[in-house]
């Protein structure tokens, strides 16, 4: 596949920052104690409900600040690509 300049810049930024965002979510999931999901399962939640209603809001709170910093960095790096 041959990219023009714009396509190569978009692909490069997407690859770089998608890895950073994935690492943020991984770290956020590891920061939540296992007892949270165990407690949700004990209350009768399914694993999917436990993730959506219990785990994900806590992860969002943990990764909010680093995610904002990552998107600001993406915005700054996009000007370098142009």
Describe the structure.
This protein is mainly alpha-helical. The chain has one domain. The protein has helices spanning 5-31, 34-42, 47-81. Helix 1 (5-31) packs antiparallel against helix 3 and helix 2 (34-42) packs antiparallel against helix 3 (47-81). The longest helix has 35 residues, at 47-81.
Rg, nearest Å: 17 Å
Shape: elongated
Say how many strands there are: 0
> What's the number of domains?
1
List the quaternary state of the chains.
Answer: single chain
**Structural class from helices and strands?**
mainly alpha
What is the overall number of helices? 3
Instruction: Please state roughly what percent of the residues sit in beta strands, choosing from under 5%, 5-15%, 15-25%, 25-35%, 35-45% or over 45%.
Output: under 5%
Kindly list the characteristics that best describe this protein:
87% helix, elongated, 82 residues, mainly alpha
């Amino acid at each position: 596949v041959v990219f023009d300049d714009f396509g190569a810049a978009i692909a490069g930024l997407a690859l770089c920052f998608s890895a950073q965002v994935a690492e943020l979510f991984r770290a956020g999931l590891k920061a939540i104690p296992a007892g949270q999901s165990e407690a949700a399962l004990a209350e009768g939640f399914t694993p999917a409900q436990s993730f959506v209603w219990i785990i994900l809001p806590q992860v969002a709170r943990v990764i909010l600040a680093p995610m904002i910093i990552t998107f600001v960095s993406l915005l700054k790096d996009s000007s370098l690509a142009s």
